[in-house]
Automatic annotation (TrEMBL):
Binding residues annotated for a divalent metal cation, in chain numbering: 96-97, 139, 260, 264
Molecular function in Gene Ontology: metal ion binding
Entry-linked InterPro entries: DUF34/NIF3, DUF34/NIF3_sf
Domain of life: Bacteria
Protein name: GTP cyclohydrolase 1 type 2 homolog
Length: 302
């Protein structure tokens, strides 16, 4: 399984590339022609049964019997993403995050007064773009779990919160650091900056020596307290609630917060590669750029 689902950081593309053995499309795989066939194929890769009970997985908006014209992949199903997908000729938008968790009460064009998730659904229906997502089902999968360690040149050895059905899958990858490497918090922070091109928020002394690292994409939830219990040196994640980070840092845990979206933007590439793996022609797959959702203003004198 590991040989088929390995990814590493691509310096030229500043993203993830598949390094598994063999062709992406399995031998004998029939390319999905319909939206529903693509959803079923991706459900086999990221089983809905692995998702959290509160989550939404698979097709949320669209006709499963519609023919696939093109597939756009992104982190978030925003109104601009729906419009860009349509402009590119894609009638399927595959994302990590769902368009909504609680169903919207109204569906209307985007405005200051509109319910934004409802506007996303409205725009998708208006433009004929199907919305499908794999959220926590993707989070716990092998390719998602190997993503951050691969990009940061770390070697995972255990899962912090494993799934009951398979202890090799789950949330958080514990990585052991060879003492001969002499890796410090400052070194790892600089590595994160070089890989993601964004300055992370760092808790802890930069000269702290590291022997264990836990990676966790997106919101880390209770991972900080669990890392403290396990004696882990540093948690590299998307984000941690302030008070949870404050408490854990006082207990000796270093934390590197990449930004929720920054830590998960490469998931769009995993989804794109997964679409190719199940047989969608690569020329029909587009990766949307959502790196500009926010920014740090340049330091300037006033």
């Amino acid at each position: 399984m590991a040989n088929e689902e390995e990814y590493e950081f691509d310096e030229e593309q500043r993203g993830l590339r598949h390094v598994g053995r063999g062709p992406l499309a399995e031998k004998g795989t029939q390319a999905p022609a319909l939206v529903g066939e693509l959803v079923s194929a991706l459900n086999r890769m990221f089983p809905p049964a692995d998702a959290e009970p509160w989550d939404r997985t698979g097709l949320l908006v669209g006709d499963p019997s519609a023919k696939i014209e093109g597939v756009a992949c992104a982190l978030d199903p925003t109104v601009p993403a729906v419009r860009e997908a349509a402009q590119l000729g894609a009638n399927v938008l595959v994302t990590h995050h769902p368009a909504f968790l609680d169903a919207p009460d109204e569906f209307m064009p985007l405005s200051a007064r509109a319910c934004v998730p409802g506007s996303v659904v409205f725009e998708a229906a208006r433009l004929g773009v199907a919305l499908a997502n794999w959220h926590t089902a993707l989070d716990v999968s092998a390719p998602a779990q190997s993503m951050l360690p691969g990009m940061l040149r770390l070697k995972p050895s255990a899962v912090l919160e494993p799934l009951a059905r398979d202890e090799s899958l789950g949330y958080g990858q514990i990585c052991a650091i060879d003492a001969s490497e002499g890796l410090t918090l400052g070194d790892l922070s600089a590595r994160c900056m070089a890989v993601f091109g964004r300055a992370p928020r760092v808790w802890g002394a930069m000269d702290t020596s590291l022997s264990t690292v836990c990676t966790w994409t997106g919101g880390a939830g209770d991972a900080a307290s669990e890392c403290v219990k396990r004696g882990i040196d540093v948690l590299v994640c998307g984000e941690v609630k302030y008070h949870a980070a404050l408490e854990a840092s006082q207990q000796g845990l270093c934390i590197i917060e990449l930004g929720h979206d920054v830590s998960e933007l490469p998931f769009a590439r995993i989804l794109a590669e997964s679409c190719a793996r199940v047989g969608v022609a690569r020329e029909k797959i587009t990766l949307l750029d959502q790196n500009d959702a926010w920014q740090h203003p340049e330091t300037r004198r006033v």
